[in-house]
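STRUCTURE:
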C-alpha cells in the first residue's frame, strides 16, 4: 500500500473523533488527503504593529503586549468581556461576546500575549472583537512569518477543528511523510522551468518562510496540476488516432452537385478552410475529433451541412445533437432548408417527439433510409440505433461532456463516427486548450461578405422617447425590431409580468404596428406561430424573453433592444446581439439600463459597446466571471483544480501544454526512464479518480 493511503486516524493528534470530523466535513480520509488540504491563503505574521500605528481600514494586525484590566459587562445576550490591552505605545480593547466564561478563565493580566485580529473603531475607540491570542514564548516569537489559513470544519458544531488545529496536524504529518514526498516531474522539466522540488513545493505551500518561497511553491504546483491535465488530454488524443479507426469518407459526388447547383452564396474563405480541414480528417482513416469555433452569424450551419453531405456520400448517416429543444429545432429548420434542395431525408428527435413518430424514426435510422437526424439528448438513448452513423455534429454550448460524446461512439457504425463539436460562443484560447484539449480546433474567424459591423449603444431608461423614435424610424425604413426582456429563472411569474408590462408600453408607443410576443410559458405551437409571423415579416416588432437567444435567423431584423441589459452575462448579450446584423443593412443593438450599475455591469456594457469580436468578449467574460461560470454549470468543478486558475494562469497553461506536447512527442508511450516519474504519478492520479479525470477520461 502507498504510504499516503494510510488512514488519517493513525496520524498523531487525530484519533477517532477528529478522524470522523475530517472524513465527514473535509473529505479527508488519508495522509495524502490531508497533505493536499492546502491553505487557501496565508496571513503575514512577520510584522508586529504598535497600537499607535493602527488606523481605520487595516485588514488584520498583530500586536504584542499585556492585559491591564478585564471586566465582564452587560447581562444575558448583551453580556461581553472587555480586556484592556496595552503595548506601551497605546491601548485598545479586546472584546468577546461568545465564550465569555471560558476566556475570562484563561486571560491573565500582566502576562505578555501575541494578539491577532481585525481592528475596528467603535465609539471613537479602537477594539478587536474575538481576537486570536496566545501567550508569548520564545518559540512563537521566532516562528512568526506566513501562517497558513485552512478551511476548517463546521464552526457551529461543538467539536471543531480550527485552522490552527489543522496546521498542527499538518506539522505532525509533514514530520511523518517528509522523506516520502517524491518527485513527480521529470528532472529536465525542473531544470528547464527552474522549479523547486516537489518536497520543497509541498512544504512551501503549507509553511512558507517568506512570500518568495510561497510563490515558488505555488508556481510549481500550478504547473504540475495543469501539466498532468494536458498530458492526459494529449495522451487521449494520441491514443484515439491509434486505437479508433475512422470510416474513410472520401467520395463527394452529391457535395459537388450541391456546390454546382444549390449553394445559396459564396462560402467565405474561413468556411472553405474549415471545410478543407474537416475533409482531411474525414478521409484520413482516423477518427475525427474536432472543435469548430465560430462567432455568432459566421455561418456554421452550412459547414455542418456540408460535412454531413460528405458522410452521406459514403453510405453513412449523420446526426446533430443540440443541448436544448429550441436549439435542436432551429438547427433542424436550418439544415432542412438545405436537405430539401437535394431531397435528403431528415428528421428531428427530442423529448417531445410522439411515440408513433419515434417508432418511424427508429426504424428509418436502423434501415438507413433516414439519413440525417437532429435532436437533443434523446439521441443518446439506448433505443436509438443507426444503420451506420458516420458523423456526429454536437452543438456543445458547453453542456455536454466527453462521457456523453463517448456514448455516441458506441452507436452502431462500421468504425467510430467522426465527431465535430460546434460552439457558437467563442472560448478563449487557453480555456479551450483545457476544456477541449483533446480535440483539434478549427476556427471560422470571418463573417460573410457585406455584413456591416453592428453599432451598439448604451442608453438609460430616461432616453426611452429617443428609443421609441429610433424604432419608428427603422420600421419606416422597412426593418424589423427585437425587444428582449431578461429571464430570471427563479421567478417565471415575475419574468412574465415584466415581459407583459414591457409589451404594454411598446403597444402604447406603437399601437398600429403589428407585433409578436414570445415567451417560455407559451405552448410550442403558439410560439412557433408567432415566430413564423415575424420571420415572414407580417409582424414588425418581436417582444420576447431570451427564448430567442440562439439560432434565430431573420436577416431583415436590424434592431436588437435589450431591456435591463445589466442583468445579462456577456456571452448572452453577445449571442442576443448576434440575432441582428445578419443581412446587408446597418444593424443596431441598444442596451437599456437604469442609472445604477455594478462595476462588473458597467464593464460588461462598455465591452459590448467597444467590440463586436466574440473572442475579445469571451476574454473579458472569463476575467469577470471565472471559468466555472463561463462554461456553464456543468463544467464548473469538473476540472478540480486546487491551484491553477483558468482565468488568470494563461502563461502557465501554455507552458504546461507545450511541456506535455514535447513529452508525448518524444515518448508517446512514456517508456523512457526519465518519464517513469510521470507514469507513476499518472497511475496515482487515475487511481484516486480525481474529479478532473472524470471529464477527460
Ligand atoms: N458565406 C456566406 N455568405 C452569405 N451568407 C452566409 C454565408 N454563410 C452563412 N450565411 C448566412 O448567414 C446567416 C448566419 O449563418 P448561421 O445561422 O449558419 O450562423 P451561425 O454560425 O450558426 O451563427 P449563430 O450561432 O448565430 O446561429 C444565415 O442566414 C446564413 O444563411
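SEQUENCE:
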Amino acid at each position: 500500500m502507498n504510504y499516503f493511503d494510510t488512514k488519517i486516524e493513525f496520524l498523531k493528534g487525530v484519533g477517532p473523533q477528529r478522524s470522523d470530523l475530517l472524513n465527514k466535513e473535509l473529505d479527508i480520509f488519508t495522509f495524502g488527503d490531508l497533505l493536499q488540504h492546502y491553505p487557501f491563503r496565508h496571513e503575514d505574521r512577520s510584522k508586529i504593529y504598535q497600537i499607535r500605528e493602527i488606523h481605520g481600514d487595516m485588514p488584520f494586525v498583530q500586536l504584542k503586549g499585556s492585559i491591564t484590566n478585564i471586566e465582564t459587562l452587560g447581562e444575558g445576550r448583551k453580556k461581553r468581556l472587555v480586556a484592556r490591552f496595552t503595548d506601551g505605545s497605546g491601548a485598545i480593547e479586546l472584546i468577546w461576546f461568545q465564550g465569555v466564561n471560558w476566556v475570562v478563565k484563561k486571560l491573565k493580566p500582566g502576562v505578555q500575549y501575541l494578539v491577532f485580529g481585525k481592528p475596528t473603531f467603535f465609539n471613537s475607540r479602537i477594539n478587536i472583537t474575538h481576537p486570536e491570542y496566545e501567550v508569548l514564548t520564545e518559540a512563537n516569537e521566532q516562528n512568526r512569518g506566513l501562517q497558513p489559513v485552512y478551511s476548517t470544519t463546521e464552526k457551529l458544531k461543538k467539536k471543531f477543528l480550527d485552522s490552527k488545529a489543522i496546521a498542527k496536524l499538518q506539522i505532525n504529518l509533514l514530520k511523518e511523510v517528509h522523506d516520502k514526498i517524491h518527485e513527480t516531474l521529470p528532472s529536465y522539466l525542473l531544470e528547464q522551468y527552474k522549479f523547486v522540488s516537489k518536497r520543497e513545493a509541498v512544504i512551501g505551500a503549507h509553511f512558507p518562510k517568506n512570500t518568495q518561497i510561497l510563490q515558488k511553491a505555488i508556481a510549481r504546483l500550478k504547473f504540475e496540476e495543469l501539466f498532468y491535465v494536458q498530458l492526459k488530454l494529449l495522451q487521449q488524443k494520441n491514443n484515439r488516432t491509434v486505437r479508433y479507426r475512422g470510416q474513410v469518407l472520401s467520395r463527394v459526388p452529391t457535395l459537388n452537385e450541391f456546390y454546382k447547383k444549390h449553394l445559396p452564396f459564396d462560402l467565405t474563405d474561413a468556411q472553405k478552410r474549415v471545410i478543407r480541414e474537416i475533409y482531411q480528417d474525414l478521409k484520413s482513416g482516423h477518427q475525427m475529433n474536432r472543435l469548430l469555433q465560430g462567432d455568432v452569424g459566421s455561418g456554421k450551419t452550412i459547414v455542418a451541412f456540408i460535412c454531413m453531405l460528405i458522410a452521406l456520400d459514403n453510405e453513412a448517416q449523420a446526426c446533430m445533437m443540440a443541448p436544448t429543444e429550441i436549439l435542436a429545432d432551429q438547427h433542424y429548420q436550418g439544415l432542412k432548408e438545405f436537405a430539401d434542395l437535394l431531397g435528403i431525408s431528415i428528421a428531428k428527435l427530442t423529448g417531445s417527439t410522439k411515440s408513433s413518430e419515434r417508432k418511424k424514426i427508429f426504424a428509418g435510422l436502423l434501415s438507413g433510409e433516414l439519413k440525417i437526424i437532429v435532436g437533443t439528448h434523446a439521441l443518446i438513448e439506448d433505443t436509438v440505433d443507426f444503420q451506420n452513423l458516420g458523423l456526429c455534429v454536437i452543438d456543445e454550448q458547453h453542456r455536454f461532456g466527453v462521457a456523453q460524446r463517448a456514448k455516441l461512439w458506441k452507436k452502431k457504425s462500421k468504425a467510430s463516427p467522426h465527431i465535430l463539436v460546434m460552439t457558437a460562443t467563442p472560448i478563449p484560447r487557453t480555456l479551450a486548450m483545457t476544456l477541449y484539449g483533446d480535440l483539434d480546433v478549427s476556427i471560422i474567424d470571418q463573417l460573410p461578405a457585406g455584413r456591416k459591423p453592428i453599432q451598439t449603444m448604451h442608453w438609460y431608461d430616461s432616453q426611452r422617447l429617443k428609443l421609441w423614435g429610433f424604432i419608428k424610424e427603422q420600421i419606416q425604413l422597412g426593418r424589423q425590431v427585437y425587444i428582449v426582456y431578461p429571464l430570471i429563472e427563479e421567478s417565471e411569474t415575475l419574468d412574465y409580468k415584466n415581459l407583459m408590462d414591457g409589451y404594454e408600453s411598446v403597444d402604447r408607443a406603437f399601437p398600429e404596428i403589428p407585433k409578436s410576443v414570445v415567451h417560455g410559458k407559451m405552448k410550442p405551437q403558439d410560439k412557433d406561430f408567432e415566430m413564423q409571423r415575424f420571420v415572414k415579416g407580417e409582424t414588425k416588432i418581436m417582444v420576447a424573453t431570451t427564448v430567442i437567444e440562439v439560432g434565430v435567423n431573420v436577416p431583415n431584423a436590424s434592431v436588437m433592444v435589450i431591456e435591463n441589459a445589466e442583468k445579462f452575462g456577456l456571452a448572452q448579450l453577445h449571442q442576443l446581439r448576434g440575432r441582428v446584423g445578419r443581412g446587408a443593412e446597418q444593424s443596431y443593438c441598444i442596451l437599456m439600463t437604469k442609472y445604477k450599475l455594478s462595476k462588473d455591469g458597467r464593464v460588461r456594457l462598455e465591452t459590448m459597446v467597444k467590440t463586436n469580436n466574440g473572442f475579445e468578449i469571451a476574454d473579458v467574460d472569463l476575467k469577470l466571471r471565472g471559468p466555472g461560470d463561463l462554461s456553464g454549470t456543468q463544467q464548473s468543478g469538473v476540472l478540480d483544480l486546487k491551484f491553477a486558475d483558468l482565468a488568470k494562469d494563461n502563461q502557465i497553461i501554455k507552458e504546461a501544454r507545450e511541456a506535455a506536447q514535447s513529452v508525448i512527442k518524444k515518448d508517446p508511450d512514456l517508456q523512457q526512464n526519465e518519464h517513469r516519474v510521470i507514469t507513476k504519478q499518472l497511475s496515482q492520479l487515475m487511481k484516486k479518480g480525481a474529479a478532473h479525470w472524470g471529464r477527460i477520461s
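REMARK: The chain has four domains: 47-144, 182-208+218-243+659-667+679-687, 253-444, 455-611.
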